[in-house]
Structure formats: structure tokens, C-alpha cells
Amino acid sequence: MGKSTAAEQFVAGTGIPYVFATGLYRQPVKAQLAAASEAFRESAHPLPGLDASAVAETWREWLGQVALAATEGPVVVVLDEFPWMAGGDASSLANLEGILQSSWDRTLSKLPVLLILIGSDIAVMEQLGQHDRPLYGRFQPLVVPSLNPGEVAQGMAGAASIDVWDAYLLTGGYPRLLSSLAMTGDTPAQWARRSLSDATAPWVVTARLAFDAEIADSAAAYRVLSSLGAAERGELNLGSVAAKTSTTGVATKTEQTAALRALHHLREKGLIDVDEPAWATSSRLRRYRVADTYLRVWFRYVEKHQGVIARGRGDIAANAFDRDWPTFRGILVEPAVREALLRIARTDARLAGTEDVRPWWTRDGQKEVDAVGMGRYRSTFIGTIKWRVSRGVTENDVRALIAADTPRADDAAVVAVCPSGEVPSSAVGFSAADLLTAWS
After folding, report:
1. Complete edge-to-edge strand list for the sheet that includes strand 75-80
2. Confidence band of 210 (pLDDT split at 50, 70, 90)
3. Would you say 39 and 19 are in contact if contact means Cβ atoms under 8 Å apart?
4. What confidence tier does 1 reach under pLDDT thresholds 50, 70, 90?
5. DSSP type of residue 250
6. What count of Cα atoms within 13 Å lies in the side-chain half-sphere of residue 354?
7. CA angle centred on 38, ends 36 and 44, rounded to 5°
8. What are the pLDDT digits (tens) for 79-112?
């Protein structure tokens, strides 16, 4: 998110001639070339020596125009939504890659050309660099992730730590959504509630735009995402995922196969994460969840209420959000807290020896621990996360944590996390502000 904007800001700021061409979704090659030729004329710093009225008939011709301009000095070329530019299926993309590889090797690499390829589909972009593809070894990949909690804090200077965390959870760190929040002056919860009354609000529509770009051609993938997104902690096994996506509630073998393929597809795209309990010896205890916090809250509060939002009854959705958010955010924040603790453990002697941080639960689900620090052979700490504003972690919370009998935790430290940092003296405490320092 924000890749195109970042590239646009970069090329505009260099003062160097550039062309910024954007692929068109599911449009034929002729339309792609017309748009790319129009980009020559739209540039704020046009490439020199080009016929502004010409429309390239082929990609080889278009790249030849770039090469001609580069003989007069440095140029920057941005091909945004590169996978769409092929205007067809995977074979069309391979053909475009071959043309680009040929033009690069013969001409462009010998000229002062900076070529930037951008694509939203992480899986497709990663495949461009595989050894059997034309562009193998010719580019340096750069993944632009969403903003992490520490970066969100930088963008919300002066805000309370709990509001920073709410902003991160509700926006997923997407710059567009954070900008929308910043313009209102509301708290994150107020902004989300207000957004539910506007069918065109960025918080309501951004997820749908992402789905159209990422999984528009897979109904099974959307059903899996919807099922996992609506669940509080995700689904514990493939059978559960398949059952939730079935129209009857009991998945057939065909539906199980479709769910498995969809899960694999979504994991490739980075949309699904898999949690395994600390010290697990069986993959059957895996828990599948939507990786992005914004998509999780979207499925929970927006998707199921799209009908009432569209007909002007966003108050129904807003009331559901008010009732549920104080509890759900405590679940939603857990993966980020575990990541923060792992980062803090690098320099905090109280968490020394920690190499990974995972949750832990029993097969029957009767016992669960929010965070377990894993060393090479033992649990370095066991932790409870109580994300409540009204009070901190209590002695009863600590006793319940110890009573869970976490594996390999005989001499583990006890860690307690809550927004205020108010914890018993028997525990190592971390506040919302402490956690944000993990990304310093």
C-alpha cells in the first residue's frame, strides 16, 4: 500500500525526465500500449526527443522510445501494475517479460535508465525473479509493507499510546487509511464508528478494492478469507475452514480440496498467517487467521453490515462495533504484541535467550497462554495480555497464567502486558508505550 504514491513522489522530486505508465486491469494489449504512450505526454518532466502524438504498436517499440530518450541523459521509467500490462493470462505476461529482458540486455542496461516495476500481487512479483523466468538475476526486489506500530506512532506524534495501537489495528498500517483518520481529528474508534455511516468512506471501501486486485478471480479464496476474518482467533484446522465455507456446513471432498487450494493461494499472497502453539509436535494444531488487522476488522464489522450501510442505516453497524470492539481488540492485538516482545528480547536481559514468541493452547482448547518465549530448549517466559483500559493485570491473572502448566516453563519468567503497564510485582510488565519502543 502506497507503492505507487512513493514512486510518484520519487520521480517528481528528482527533476529527471521520467515516464510513469500504469497497467489497466483486464484490458487488451492495444489498450495497455495506448495508455503507456499517453503516459509519455502526461509526465511532469517528459522524456526528451519523443514524438508526443505517436502511439506505440508494440512493447518493443515503446521500450525503443525509452532507449532513444536515454541517449540524451538519465531517465526513470516506472511500470506500475506490471502484471496487468500483459493484458492477458500467464503466457501473455511471460511474453512481455521476454520482450523486456531482450530490450534490457541489448540496449537499456547500457544506458542511464532506472527501471522500476511495481505490482500489488506479491506472489506474481516474486515469481518474476525465479530462475526459469526471463528477468531472473536482473532486478533487486523490494517489498513495501504496511506501516508497523512504531511508524504509526511517528505519524501520530503526541497521541496516547493506546490510540496509536487502535489506529494500527483499525487501519492495518495502510497510509491511505491513516491519512483519512488524521484528517478527522477523531480518536480511532470514533473514526471507525463514523465511517460505518458512509458507504464511500475509505475504511469501508479499501478492502473491497484490495480484493478486486488480489483475488477477484477466486470465489473460494474470498469465502475462506471471509470465514477466517469473521472468526475471533481464526480456525483451528483445514476441516473447520472447509466446513465454514460450505453452504451446508458439512464440507464435501470437493469443497475441502477447494478450501485447501484457496488457503495455499492466500498464504502465497501473504493474506493468511498460520499460528502453531509453542513446542507443538503436530501440525494438526495449526490455527489459520487473516494476517492483516484491517481486513480482520473489515470482515467483522463491515462485510456483514454492507447492506444496512448502503441503505443509510450505518447506526446498526456502529452499535455492533461499540458493543464488540473493546473485547475484540484485545484478541486482535495479540500477534503484534508477540512480535514486539520478540523484538524487545534482543536487548532486554529479562527476556534473555528468547528466539521465538508464540501462543500456546491445549488440543481441547481448555488452556491457553497468550505469549510463550521459546529458547533453544526451554520456555524463557510465559505471558498474559490483558488489553483493557479500565484496569491492569491482577494477581489472579498471574496465578491463572502459572496454573496453565505451559510446557518447559518450570523456571520461566512471568510477563504481563496491559495498556497502562500496571502489573503485580511478581511479573515483568510492559505497557502500550513500552511495546511501541520495539520498533525504534
Report:
1. 18-22, 75-80, 113-117
2. confident
3. yes
4. low
5. S
6. 30
7. 105
8. 999 988 987 666 777 889 999 999 999 999 999 9
Strand (E) or helix (H) holding 272 = strand 272-275
- Any idea which residue has 461499540 for its cell? 322
**Which residues face 372 on adjacent strands?**
358, 382
Q: Which H helix or E strand runs over 80?
A: strand 75-80
Q: Are strands 113-117 and 287-290 parallel, antiparallel or unpaired?
A: unpaired
Beta strand 379-385 pairing with 287-290: unpaired
User: Chain centroid to CA 186: how far?
Assistant: 24
User: What are the strands, taking DSSP E only, across 27-91?
Assistant: 75-80
Q: CB under 8 Å, gap of 24 or more: what pairs does 183-190 form?
A: 187/163, 188/163, 189/325
Of 103, 78, 117, 99, which is closest to residue 29 (Cα–Cα)? 99
Q: Which segments of 389-431 does DSSP mark as H helices, in order?
A: 395-403
Least confident of 180-184, 237-241, 318-322: 237-241
The Cα 196–Cα 159 span in angstroms is 23
DSSP string, 122-144: HHHHHHTTSTTSTTTTS------
Domain 334-439 matching CATH 3.40.1350: the answer reads yes
What are the structural domain ranges in the chain?
3-127, 147-332, 334-439
Read out DSSP for 299-316? IIIIGGGHHHHHTT-HHH
Measured in degrees and rounded to the nearest 5, phi and psi for residue 21 equal -105, 135
| Cβ-based neighbour number of residue 134 at 10 Å | 17
